[in-house]
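Hi support team,

I submitted a single chain yesterday and got back a structure, but I'm not sure I'm reading the token output correctly. Could someone confirm the output below corresponds to the sequence I sent? I've pasted both exactly as they appear in my results page.

Thanks,
R.
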Amino acid sequence: NTILKNEISERRQVQKELLQSERKFQDLYDSAPDMYISVDAKTANVINCNQAVVEQLQYKKEEIIGRPVFGLYTPESAEYTKAKIFPKFQKTGLIREEELQLQQKDGKKIDVSLNVNAVRDEQGEIIASRSIWRDISENKKVRKEIQQIQKLESIGTLAGGVAHEINNPINGIMN
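Hi R., thanks for writing in. Yes, this is the structure output for that exact sequence:
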């Protein structure tokens, strides 16, 4: 009888620790700044997502779970993902640093970097994906501004060179 009580007590303790661990994981998952999303490998339907996905895309979680992941991308990115990324993932189980665009509920586009890892069953078959979308909209905007500045610098250098080349003969004539 004492042995049985000890076993029951140990099981309850293990269950309690497992529940605490699960809550910690869920808290980390939900409060992560990047968008985390899990997708069924056969149907391409969303299994789960974190709060960042809900906030960034402006959908309710219930509107995201169960829908095809391709519907969260812009039409161009959805086509590219279907044609190139999804087949590559099914083959390798891994995607790194793919730049795509998501579309918010109101139609606004978000530039993201996609990283994907496979979830496999006991036989090693891919059953789902764990994906991270990192918002790179601000980075792309800054890169574009830097390119514009570099272009203007190049034009300025060219204009200075041209002015110098024109001024040399004019100075000679004026002298």
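A quick pointer for reading it: The chain has a mean pLDDT of 87. Let us know if anything else looks off.

Best,
Support desk
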